[in-house]
Write a structure and sequence with these properties.
10 strands, alpha+beta, four-stranded mixed beta sheet
Length: 214
């Protein structure tokens, strides 16, 4: 009996993805090769809002997952940051960080969350460059709640009382807030370089986020 050839459904036929290199990026419309003030090469595209017929909706980017969150630090602050996140929050230092021409560190948490820390680029033309992160605030004495409605990262715990005790034992100032109409509580505190961190027992209010929901 002759074997019958099977045709794959059209949904299984996928074109190979293009290899995206600097040359590929530079070959795209209105793109150009440039160099940072620190000597790093990159490709720039500067978009303009679509006009007329070009205003039709576009498809959303097919995001696969959250890969990492990144934070800026000053030269010489890597060690204190690594120690803080590893010792207090259970992150592990990754050895897979490429040999970038600036200081930094990659950290991974057992939950799968990855943080990247990178030395600030002195070539970025900031309007002001404070001597320390505390000087961002009037009086130079920041309160943890200052970051509550600013950019911050939030971690979930089951035992919020235990987390409070750990922070007190380490001498880390925090501010506690109740979420209105919910049994959930929130702790806010700063890391050594001024990033605000939130810790909450979100599961008590049905606010937990599983990896499949990210």
């Amino acid at each position: 009996e002759r074997s019958r050839s099977r045709s794959c459904p059209s949904s299984e036929l996928k074109m190979p993805l293009p290899k995206v290199t600097a040359k590929f990026a530079a070959d795209q419309p209105e793109s150009a090769e440039k160099v940072t003030t620190g000597g790093e090469k990159y490709v720039a595209f500067r978009g303009k809002p679509p006009q007329g017929e070009n205003q039709c909706p576009r498809a959303a980017i097919a995001v696969k997952s959250l890969n990492h969150a990144a934070f800026q630090l000053r030269k010489g602050e890597v060690e204190i940051c690594v120690n803080f996140y590893c010792e207090l929050l259970g992150f592990k230092l990754l050895n897979s960080r490429p040999n970038f021409p600036f200081e930094g560190a990659w950290l991974r948490h057992p939950s799968g969350l990855v943080f990247h820390f990178a030395e600030e680029d002195g070539g970025v033309p900031l309007e002001t460059r404070p001597v320390s992160w505390e000087r961002r605030y009037a009086g130079g004495t920041p309160e943890p709640w200052f970051g509550r409605r600013d950019r911050h990262m939030a971690f979930e715990v089951e035992d919020l009382a235990a987390a409070m005790e750990v922070l007190r034992e380490r001498g880390i100032s925090y501010d506690f807030f109740e979420i209105p109409g919910s049994p959930v509580g929130q702790l806010f505190f700063f890391d050594p370089i001024g990033n605000c961190i939130e810790i909450g027992n979100y599961g008590l209010g049905g606010m937990s986020v599983t990896p499949s929901e990210l």
